[in-house]
Amino acid sequence: MGIFDNIEKRIQTYFFGRELSKVSRKKKVVGFDSARKIGILYDCSQEKHYREVVRLVKDLEQQGKTVHALGFVRQKKMPDYTLAQLNLSFCHRSDFSWRLRLKSPQLQNFIRSGFDLLIDLSPEDLILMKFVMGLSDATYKAGPYHQEYVEVYDLMISEKNEASLKELIEHMLHYLKIINPAPNEQ
User: Which site from 61, 84, 93, 141 is most exposed, i.e. has the minimal number of CB atoms within 10 Å?
Assistant: First the structure.
């Protein structure tokens, strides 16, 4: 990481913390079975990741869930493998201001979608997706364990080794299916 990358990360971390302190949401434990509306954040820069998330979205929809996935594209132009679909949308660096303000109405709509469950499958270095996660009004937020983002999530899954996206999805769903909130919490 170069000196300018380090400075940019510090600036982003500052604005991230500032914006996160303004967020108010109604937190509640939501297990997989009780979640009806699910959001997914992921890095769409590799075709295999895109394909895994498309498969996940289809599986969840077959189980009666309403799903919307937001993929972050690191490339300047949309990769050929991405297909426009109703429940898949994409964002780029240009959708965020240098102060981490959301510039696109699509992102504004995503964070205000009222997801019962928001699952983050993006890597640790993708601070922009962590920012979207933090701003979201989702009732329950789950993602991989990253020390820097503990305040963003309600449930974090810690992997012993670097897990593939497929493994992360399997582990995330496994633990979310175990969660069964008490009747008075629903």
Answer: 84
DSSP 163: -
CA torsion angle 74 89 123 29 (round to 10)? 160
pLDDT, average across residues 18-35: 82
- Which residues, other chains included, contact 150 with Cβ-Cβ below 8 Å and sequence gap of 6+? 156
Query: What whole-number distance in Å separates Cα of residue 40 and Cα of residue 119?
Result: 5
3-state SS, residue 129:
helix
Q: Which domain holds residue 149?
A: 3-185
Of the candidates 110, 104, 80, 101, the one whose C-alpha atom is nearest the C-alpha of residue 92 is 104
Q: How many residues does the chain have?
A: 186
pLDDT digits (tens, 9 = 90+) for 168-179: 999 999 999 998
Q: Are 98 and 8 in contact (CB under 8 A)?
A: no
Average pLDDT of span 157-165: 84
Domain count, the chain: 1
Least confident of 81-90, 107-116, 119-128: 81-90
Residue 73 belongs to domain with CATH number: 3.40.50
Q: Which residues contact 106 (CB under 8 A, 6 or more apart)?
A: 89, 91, 95
